Amino acid sequence: MDFNVRKFATDAGIFFSRAVQFTEEKLGQAEKTELDAHFENLLSRADCTKNWTEKIYRQTEVVLQPNPGARIEEFLYEKLDRKVPPRPTNGEILGQFMLEAAKEFGAETPYGSTLIKVGDCQRRLGGAEREFLQTSSISFLTPLRNFLEGDWRTISRERKLLENLRLDLDACKARLKKAKAAETKAAAVPDFQETRPRNYVLSASASAAEHELRVAQTEFDRQAEVTRLLLEGISSTHVNHLRCLCEFVEAQAMYYSQCHKYMLELQRELGSCSGDIRCPGSLDVNCLPDRSPTDPSAFLPLNSSSPLERDALQIEEVQPPASGTRKAKVLYDYDAADSIELSLRADELITVYTVPGIDSDWLIGERGNQKGRVPVTYLELLS
């Protein structure tokens, strides 16, 4: 019990000494040991890494799981060290609803058979999303969380210990300074009435303060070196996060590639689903030109006209109406697929109008002496 009381009293004294030193530093009444510029840069870099890693981690969670209730549920399961129960994705739920609706309407009907095809595609899209979420969580979110909950907590703990030792060091410096000042003053005015000279006592006090200072300096230097090594490890953290970021991008690319593949297959199925019933304005995917998925022209309206309709429209014979022409700003570059279309360049202004018989997703565009069909989705109509 005596030992515990002594330890408590010692800890309380240390805490009080640190509090006094910290307060005097804030008030400008005490000197503060400054860290070297390189160390300060390491501290700043570590804080920047922590702040941005936390922001990226939180926002990635939102992107992968927009439902805040689901995120809270996953967080609670993780803290309870329990496995999160499987949850179907929205695409899988939609696909299941479509398949159930097809059973009600009849799989042999045109609507029912189309619901089956679309529902099956939605389920595959949902499965691809599930795989993407799992891959991203393992390869990207987990390393970021491990840094925040592991490495960063260790760095914070060592930084706090370094700050406490710095306060102890500065407190020792202040005590030694006061002892030296008192010793100098006593040496100048000795007291001959004392049995033991006062300067002898003050000299012993100054020697004790010097010893405390050497011990405090040694502990501070040792802790500074430990903290420096941890802060320099932030470079390795950046390398690891870079690798994880590349894996995240690869997972995204694979996911969107799968989705694009599934949708192309669905378009082909719907384009040849039957000879009697055809989806309004559907496009035969086999007639699409080979274009990159990143090319906006790869996503032209599904109800664009067929080659026969293109041939029936003679651009040379089209005349602008007496009224109804408008100016339009081009949003994206567009390369004409044939001679009846007009190539576009982003941000240019053209004159557009509609004519009888042309599809609603297309307009006639004029630029000087050039004339041709242009897709509405590439334009911003101006008043």
Automatic annotation (TrEMBL):
Q: How does it assemble?
A: Homodimer, and heterodimer with SH3GLB1.
Compartmental location: Cytoplasm
- Tell me the protein family, please: Belongs to the endophilin family.
Tell me a GO biological process for this protein. Answer: membrane organization
One Gene Ontology cellular component:
cytoplasm
Start and end of every SH3 domain? 323-383
Species annotation: Carassius auratus
The protein's name in its UniProt record? Endophilin-B2
Q: Which residues form a coiled coil?
A: 155-182
Q: Where is the BAR domain?
A: 24-279
Q: Per UniProt, what is one Pfam family of this protein?
A: BAR
Going by the UniProt record, its keywords in alphabetical order are: Coiled coil, Cytoplasm, SH3 domain
- Indicate where this protein is primarily found: cytoplasm
